[in-house]
């Protein structure tokens, strides 16, 4: 079994990219209520604050902050993925390895995470989350994408309603 090196920061803020196995699928937006319920149930069991979130047809980006003293982000992401899959009928194709391991063929096995290290890093990743529907050509204005915390951020005064309305350069996420 792989031994992944992960930077764990108790009470830290983390950015994630979680992707469906079948790229090009629209499953996440087609089954948005199942995903929302998976997130709600996971937050009730293992609390975390949602700093930013966007759901695209075949992947999602999110930034969450864990409670003080808690660094268990991996099991939160795992729980969301499992709950989402259990809400779906088993109609996807599975390869031999997934069948043997009793796995569904919905999500990619791994996810990408990044520990937020500074206010500038936080702002860059929040911008990246919110610009993503525009970047992927799903909308002409960020405000037109319904599956995003952008609308909450506008209400909180973090962004103007017309931010990234199709004329601004795309923000880069620092490595």
TrEMBL record:
It comes from Pseudogulbenkiania subflava DSM 22618. It comes from the Bacteria. Residues 9-132 form the Transposase IS200-like domain. This is Putative transposase. GO terms for biological process: DNA transposition. One of its GO terms (molecular function) is sequence-specific DNA binding. InterPro entries: RAYT_transposase, Transposase_17, Transposase_17_sf.
């Amino acid at each position: 079994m792989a031994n992944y090196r992960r930077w764990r920061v108790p009470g830290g803020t983390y950015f994630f990219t979680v992707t469906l196995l079948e790229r090009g699928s629209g499953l996440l937006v087609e089954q948005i209520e199942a995903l929302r319920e998976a997130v709600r149930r996971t937050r009730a069991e293992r609390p975390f604050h949602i700093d930013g979130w966007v759901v695209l047809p075949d992947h999602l980006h999110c930034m969450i902050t864990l409670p003080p003293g808690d660094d268990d982000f991996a099991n939160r992401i795992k729980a969301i993925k499992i709950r989402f899959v259990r809400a779906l009928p088993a109609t996807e194709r599975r390869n031999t390895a997934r069948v043997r391991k009793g796995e569904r063929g919905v999500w990619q096995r791994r996810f990408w995470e990044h520990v937020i290290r500074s206010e500038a890093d936080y702002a860059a990743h929040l911008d990246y989350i919110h610009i993503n529907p525009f970047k992927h050509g799903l909308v002409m204005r960020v405000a037109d994408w319904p599956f995003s915390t952008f609308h909450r951020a506008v209400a909180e005064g973090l962004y103007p309603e017309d931010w990234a309305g199709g004329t601004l350069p795309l923000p880069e996420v620092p490595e």
